[in-house]
Amino acid sequence: MTKVSIIKVGGNVIENPKDLDNFLKDFASITGSKILVHGGGKKVSKWAERLGIPVEMKDGRRITNTETLELITGIYGGQVNKNIVASLQGYNCNAIGLSGADANAIQAVKRPIENTDFGWVGDITYVNTSFFKLLLNNALSPICCALTHDANGQILNTNADTIASSIAVALGKDFEVTLYYCFEQMGVMKSLKDQNSLIEHIDSQIYKKLKEEHIISEGMLPKMKNSFDALQNGVSKVHIGKPEMIKGTIKHTTITL
Amino acid sequence: MTKVSIIKVGGNVIENPKDLDNFLKDFASITGSKILVHGGGKKVSKWAERLGIPVEMKDGRRITNTETLELITGIYGGQVNKNIVASLQGYNCNAIGLSGADANAIQAVKRPIENTDFGWVGDITYVNTSFFKLLLNNALSPICCALTHDANGQILNTNADTIASSIAVALGKDFEVTLYYCFEQMGVMKSLKDQNSLIEHIDSQIYKKLKEEHIISEGMLPKMKNSFDALQNGVSKVHIGKPEMIKGTIKHTTITL
Fold this sequence. Notes:
Order of helices and strands of chain A: EHHEHEEHEEEHEEEHEEHHEE
Strand order of the largest sheet of chain A: 5-8-2-1-11-13-14-12
Radius of gyration of chain A: 18 Å
Oligomer: homodimer
Number of strands of chain A: 14
Largest sheet of chain A: 8 strands, mixed
CATH architecture of chain A: 3-Layer(aba) Sandwich
Helix content of chain A: 25-40%
CATH superfamily of chain A: Acetylglutamate kinase-like
């Protein structure tokens, strides 16, 4: 089975030009098929402030109103995505930037209004596996931003972690998929204050125990849930840690079923 | 020989949501292979003003400084491109948005400084024909914004008319290419003040005469030059007129060798 690495990189790396450049060099040097999924970091908040676009929050989460979506579409789909793609091309990686609308790569539905109307936020319903296969089979590396579409002309803001795991699951049927969640920490820590508390391996049993003991922090729970969902649906392995882990040279957390 | 329609659409259409929507419906209904090339219209100036980014002009032309390039990358590559792609998907056209960096679709060099440093402006050196063929052969419609790259990590602002003619010429070897330049006028006019002065057909001889008689306006000359360059390099036909001409229902200017 052909191997595919799917790497999600988050805000902190995107924001620091030097960190981003180092990461992109590492990404370019990965042999074999690879896919990058990125968010936009704090750029959106900065530009919203500069433009006087009000930031609506509810329960600590941003509401994607129409002006914010327009901004996000420019920043995620344009500024961040195209600069990443151009850099990777400079490092001899044949990257191709995508939103979910491009080639109908990722479809979503606007999140139903229950207690909160999150605005133009999408929950993924479909990943166009044959399109991703076409790109990978032609030695192209998809670079996906955190935008999907509803197949009716509407762009939707979609969580980048979920995009990464959805693509991973969709490709898991035809490829041996490894999913990497890169962020600012070494991996899953027993205590965020103790740099020596890294948990190097987590499986279902350990996960259950960690949850029972309330060792896993709030912020880490959605990532862990995404990881196990992916593993239960055909993804081979999940790695969580600093971006340098994709070179395989630093300690991080590996998750298996 | 397979037919390909390459359509360049300019500022006025992009700016008016209703005009753009009508145009996209028409574009979606074109049978066979098709490629769209778009600029960003006056959105860039509007956002530059809103953001307080100084607009540098020289000899009536915008200088693409670093801040302007960042803005253009967001607007052309993100906002405008992704919204066009999402709309087309809604009209059952399998569109895929591209900058020149994506899959190394279009390479350029930064314009050399002679009298004026135009900043981050690119002159096209290479069109990745095999990539465009891959997309067209898979029933995908490339939607190209006015951005190229230098293959060294730098994005460059590039004239959309030139992008359209460069792609047309590159594909002219393998396809029967028709190039459409859509803009706000009916076509090439003898007098801009007289709506009955449309010149419906121009060939090399007529062009020579029109130039000698100074009938072609300044603004039209680059479009005419691009058109004849394209025709001399393997493009079958060039049409100039209002966007509705792509349906074949309104009068416009047809250019042949």
